[in-house]
Amino acid sequence: MTAVADLDMERFKGKWYTHSLYPPLSLKVPKCQSTEFVEKAGHHFIVKARELSGQTGTVRFRKAPILKVEPKYGRYVLGTKNPAFPEGVLLYVLDTDYTNFAIRFMCFDSSHIFSFHWAVIQTRKRLPSAQVIYMAQYYANRAGLMISDMSKVHQESCPPDT
């Protein structure tokens, strides 16, 4: 898989709504997911993630710093409190047009025992047009993602704070 050749975080920042993703290990896909890339002072970024809990119906909120951005490789390192990833988690932006869709990807290998893959198609609008979805899925497929393995994230009837 290849990532964008020159990731422009200035254009990438802002809110993205999750359209579809490789299902998490729990296989339960939360509703109303969004991710916001926010610039702090001095070209430092944080990521704010929100989703509607299927169990409680409340909004879950997570915030993490972006520790490092490597624009020419189309990737960034997301900070985490998980002790398994003391240096953070490396995520790639496989493709984006910055105004309609983004495709992000992460994978890691655990001592050659198992490999974990995570991918997400996100859009700038909570309910994008069919044309935007088609375009995003087309480029995700070209990047090597299996669209048929992705689960749709429901964005209908979402509270405004997600």
Automatic annotation (TrEMBL):
| Source organism of this protein record | Drosophila suzukii (Spotted-wing drosophila fruit fly)
Q: Which Gene3D superfamilies match?
A: 2.40.128.20
Gene symbol? LOC108012538
Indicate what this protein is called per its UniProt record: Apolipoprotein D
Q: Name one GO biological process term.
A: lipid metabolic process
Cellular component annotations (GO), alphabetically ordered: cytoplasm
What family does the database annotate?
Belongs to the calycin superfamily. Lipocalin family.
